[in-house]
Structures are given as C-alpha cells and as structure tokens.
Amino acid sequence: MDLLYTTTSGVTGVSDNWNNCHDARDGVTIWFAAGGYWTSQNSEMNRCYSSVASTGQNQSVAAHELGHMIALDHNFTKSPCSAVALMNPYTSQRYGSRGINKPTTDDTNGVNSIY
Ligand SMILES: [Zn+2]
C-alpha cells in the first residue's frame, strides 16, 4: 500500500515499507522539524500486520495515521460506542469492534478546532 502525495515540503504520505513483527504498532507517524518549524511528516504502516489485514482494517490504520499528519492526537474514549473516534489508538477498538475506517464527528470536530 502506498498513499503518496506531494506537499510544499516534498513527497510524503503513508507507505508500508516498515516490516517489524516485534513491534506491536501497526502504524506510526513521525514529524520532522527544522529551524523551529515542522517541515514534513512521514507515516508508515507495519507490513507485518498490513500484509494479513483486511482492506477495511488497512484503511482504518492509514486514515488514523493521516489524522496524525494533520495534527490530531489520540482520543482514548471507548464508550459509549458512538464516541469511539478514528483517532482511538487501538485498531482493535476502532476497527475490530466498530469498523471505523473514516473520520467520525469527534475527528472532524478536532480538525475544525485546530484549523
Ligand atoms: Zn495513533
């Protein structure tokens, strides 16, 4: 899976070149800074998990990491069911139990509060 796009700082996006079955994380987003400014972000999905996950689960991980790219943090709320957000850090709670693979109202509210 490669969801690459171009920003003003260069090519970035979500790739699945990371392959580490000893790491429990199925995705990660790293921000880079220089001169006191954020310059780029890179998100990767762990191929150890993405290679055997369903399309919907991979979409959930990729969309979650893209949420980090636009500065959303984790939302640990897990009840009631309707409150679980795309930015819940646990794929098992976010997708496994509820099939969330796109932004929820909480996520869009978070984006609107930032921007
Ligand atoms: Zn996360």
In short:
The chain is an alpha+beta fold and 115 residues long. It has helices at residues 47-50, 55-69, 91-96, 105-114; strands at 2-7, 10-18, 27-34, 37-46.
Descriptive report:
30% of the residues lie in helices and 29% in strands. The protein has 115 residues and is an alpha+beta fold. Strands 1-2-4-3 form a four-stranded mixed β-sheet. The relative contact order is 0.15. Bound molecules: zinc ion (ZN). Zinc ion (ZN) is lined by residues 64, 68, 74, 89.
Key features of this structure:
alpha+beta, 115 residues, binds zinc ion, 4 strands, disordered N terminus, 4-stranded mixed sheet
Helices and strands, with pairings:
Blueprint (H helix, E strand, L loop, with lengths): L1 E6 L2 E9 L8 E8 L2 E10 H4 L4 H15 L21 H6 L8 H10 L1
Parallel strand pairs: 2-4
Antiparallel strand pairs: 1-2, 3-4
